Amino acid sequence: MTPIIRSTSLRGLCVLLLVCALSPALAAPAQSTFTYSVTQGKEVIGEIQETLTIDAQRYKLESKTIPLGIAAIFVKDTILMRSEGGYSASGFKPDRFEYHRSTKPNKDAIARFDWPAMNAEFSYEGKTESQALPELLQDRLSALYQFRFLPKPPKTMNLPVSNGKKIENQLFKYGGEETLTLPIGKIKALRYVRERTPDDDGIAVWINDQWAAPVKIVVTSKKGNQTEQVLKRAKLDGR
């Protein structure tokens, strides 16, 4: 899994973000916007804006990544990811995932998840493929929001995740509680880690129960390079 390259006072918004944005009984859509800074080393290389909309038993997640700084010299396109599906007290149940690059449409991928038929259909590079749909499936965008729905931190969690082209099982381990100093303030968060392997990147995700979105994500590439994504702003329904 790779980083998604998928002012008002924030302290007063912390509780509101989950109480309002994650209530399945809402009468009207609630929308939260989370803005992240993306860095490699000390260099800011991008900004991510993610919008979560909850309406009755449905959710929609949209993530837009814009390159900044030196990265903008070499990367000219933006990345857009969308995830939508059902929502309940147990979390998200995606039925569609999209991945788009503004200047490289050949990289686009669309996945459709048919839960009654337990079938996943993937469209990319001009072809369509199918795969059996496992229970608890998440896509690469919704998966990072799913940790906060766990009733208690498990020692390990095997999570099937789709990148829009296929489904892979990803093993996450609970890494304990840490205190983070972030642009949104000093907070305590739970860490979940998927170890780096010779064939895949590693990822660490920090979750705080006051926020719907992850507060920090660190991706370690197969070569050992790290990209850090931290939450710097959040807004709920314009407040």
Would you write up a description of this structure?
This protein is mostly beta strands. The chain is 7% helix and 54% strand. The protein contains three helices and 15 strands. Strands 8-7-6-5-4-3-2-1-15-14-13-12-11-10-9 form a 15-stranded mixed beta sheet. Strand 10 and strand 11 form a beta hairpin. It is globular.
Defining traits:
disordered N terminus; 239 residues; mainly beta; 15-stranded mixed sheet; single chain
User: Termini distance?
Assistant: 32 Å
Total of helices: 3
How much helix, percentage-wise, in residues?
A: under 10%
* Average residue pLDDT: 84
User: Could you give the order of the helices and strands?
Assistant: HEEEHEEEEEEHEEEEEE
Radius of gyration: 17 Å
Structural class: mainly beta
Strand order of the largest sheet: 8-7-6-5-4-3-2-1-15-14-13-12-11-10-9
Proportion of residues in extended strands? over 45%
Give me the count of strands: 15
Described by strand count, sense and barrel closure, the largest sheet is:
15 strands, mixed
What is the overall shape?
Answer: globular
Low-confidence stretches: 1-27
